[in-house]
Every structure is written in C-alpha cells, then in structure tokens.
C-alpha cells in the first residue's frame, strides 16, 4: 500500500520547483505581492483545464497557441488585472512580457495566468519590473500563494508526500485562489499544481479532468463563472517515481481540499453546505437538481438566515426541470427528516432540531427524489450582506 502524508508549507516541497512573488504596484498599500512565478529547473509536461465562459481571457488564448503536448518551465501570474476582453492586444502583451522575461532568464514556452478586473490591458512596464525583483532560485510558496489572492481572506496552499510500499516517494503541492464568482462550471479561480512524480502525460490529462469534475466543478458561491478560471498541473518528473492509484488519490485529495477552502472563503460566507440529490431518474437529472440547489439565491439566503424553510429546497428542485413528485420526495438536513409526504409541516420538536443544524458551520442537505438511481453531490455556501458589500466595491 501507500501513504499520503500532509506536509508543511506548499510548492517548496516539490523537487526542482521554485516560486516567489514581488509587489510592482498593482496591489497598492499592501505587503503582499501582486506578481508571482513558478519555475521548474527542467521542462515540465503541463495539463490544464479552463473556464467554460465563452469569453476566455488572453492568458488562456496565449496558452492555447502552443502546440499540443508542449512543455514549459515557467508560469507567470498577476493579480488585480484579468487581461480579459482585451482582444488580440491582450495576447500580444503577453508575448511582449515573455520576450522581456527571456532577456533575464532562459525559459521554455512560458505561460501566464491573470486574475482581477476585466477589460483593461496589462501595465507592461510595471509587470516587467518584477523580473528584476524575482529570486528565480527562491522557494517561497507563502508569498506566491498570497500574491495571487484577490478577494480571498486567506491563502490557499497544500502539499503531500506520497510514500510507496517500497519506501520510494514523490511529492505533490498546489496553491490556488478563489472566493467569489464561483460556479459548478469551473470556479472563478486559479490553481497551480506541481509534482515531481514521473507521471505520463496521458495520465495527467485524464486524471486532471476527472479530479476537476470531483472538486472545483462541484462548488458554488454565487453561480457566476469568470473569464480566467484555470487549473494547471505541472510535472517535472524529477523523483523518477510513480504509482498511478496513489497519484490519482493524492491529486483528488489536494484538489478537493482546496475546493473546500475556496467555498469556506466564499465572499462573506459563514456556512459550507453539501447538497446530495439521490433517487433521480439519471445522474444527469441528479446533477441538474444538485447544482440548482447550490446556486439558488433563495436557498443561500435561507442558509444565511438559518431558516429551515424546506419549501425553498423543494421549489428549487421543481424549478430545475427534472422529473419529480411531491409524494415521493424526501428531504433531510443531516440525519433529520425535514419533509416527506407524511410530514409536510415541521412540528416544534423537528423545527427546533432543524434550527440547531442550520447554526452549524457545515451540514448536509439530502434530497431523495424517489424515482431512480441517479445520484450527484455538489457544495455551496450561504449568501450574506458582506457578499454584496465586497462586490459592490470590487474596483475601489
């Protein structure tokens, strides 16, 4: 068997990777950086999944210009400016930056990722000034993780050592950002995963897609999807070690735990709620209803108000368009029966118990449709006054 062992800190645990950040003035009056980098001492295979928003940002278009199965050894990341909806000039600006970077350090097919306000071209001179400040041989995952934050209230980084039965091992680590515009169609987020495992490129592509579906594609803060969403997996293979099942489990674990961090950090959020829909006619119908629940503004505000109003749950399922029947529907909050056809009204005992559940930081809503075997689980949070304040003042 194998062991997946949590490690302190983040990207610095992975052999052959370097990272850091600096502040060039994009993020004003802050000790945190606003331009970060991840560098590998050897070329990496790279797999990525991107936003489903039709208006993909310039960094994604720049990435897609490279030939299939290209390798890279450098990722440049900036905050405060999304470089989205900037047309061909946005891509040309990235090429210009990478040309300036190449004058400072040898790089292979460098890629870029951006987060921030949509509709403005990158301040090239400011970002290029980072190249004089970077310690390209440094290892400071903390600074890199903090530099990519936008409305995040805390940094998000994780690392694991995967120890195989024969004593051999490899490492996997990640940093990510995300707190708002989170929707189960990729989240409004950036995630950069590094590993020294000798993982084949074909496994990277398959496992990243599968793990994204089980993690970032199942969370919702506000039902919006940004132009820049990116999950990137970089493998430099320097450990020379690999075990497919162990790597798969470690990748799924790191991505799921990061997804839960994003949800817990949802702008102004206080609660993390699991929405399991089972008994639907098909998995697709279960997914439709589950995602509708995690996206519903009425459900989210009921969660914030700690109001056990099962009517909002039932109404959302009915409005989702799936096959359903109020005679067969059963709703639980954790293990507490909230609704079935014989218990349509909450008596005082059950209502008091429901209030206690809804006061918790995390709980589960289970909806049994009673028509089949389809099951799907997504994850959501409440919607508070603070969410409105943060987004009303986003550019200020």
From TrEMBL:
Main location: cytoplasm
Gene that this polypeptide is encoded by: argJ
Site entry: Involved in the stabilization of negative charge on the oxyanion by the formation of the oxyanion hole: 115-116
Family the entry assigns: Belongs to the ArgJ family.
GO molecular function, one term: L-glutamate N-acetyltransferase activity, acting on acetyl-L-ornithine as donor
Pfam families: ArgJ
Subunit description: Heterotetramer of two alpha and two beta chains.
Site (Cleavage): 187-188
PANTHER family: ARGININE BIOSYNTHESIS BIFUNCTIONAL PROTEIN ARGJ (PTHR23100), ARGININE BIOSYNTHESIS BIFUNCTIONAL PROTEIN ARGJ, MITOCHONDRIAL (PTHR23100:SF0)
Involved pathway(s): Amino-acid biosynthesis; L-arginine biosynthesis; L-ornithine and N-acetyl-L-glutamate from L-glutamate and N(2)-acetyl-L-ornithine (cyclic): step 1/1; Amino-acid biosynthesis; L-arginine biosynthesis; N(2)-acetyl-L-ornithine from L-glutamate: step 1/4
InterPro entries in alphabetical order: Arg_biosynth_ArgJ (IPR002813), ArgJ-like_dom_sf (IPR016117), ArgJ_beta_C (IPR042195)
Catalytic activity field: L-glutamate + acetyl-CoA = N-acetyl-L-glutamate + CoA + H(+); N(2)-acetyl-L-ornithine + L-glutamate = N-acetyl-L-glutamate + L-ornithine
EC number: 2.3.1.35, 2.3.1.1
Keyword Acyltransferase: yes
Function: Catalyzes two activities which are involved in the cyclic version of arginine biosynthesis: the synthesis of N-acetylglutamate from glutamate and acetyl-CoA as the acetyl donor, and of ornithine by transacetylation between N(2)-acetylornithine and glutamate.
Protein's name in the database: Arginine biosynthesis bifunctional protein ArgJ
Location(s), subcellular: Cytoplasm
Residues engaged in binding substrate: 150, 177, 188, 267, 391, 396
Key word Amino-acid biosynthesis present: yes
Domain of life, per lineage: Bacteria
SUPFAM superfamilies to which the protein is assigned, alphabetical: DmpA/ArgJ-like
UniProt keyword annotations, A-Z: Acyltransferase, Amino-acid biosynthesis, Arginine biosynthesis, Autocatalytic cleavage, Cytoplasm, Multifunctional enzyme, Transferase
CDD domains (alphabetical): OAT
Residue positions of the active site: 188 (nucleophile)
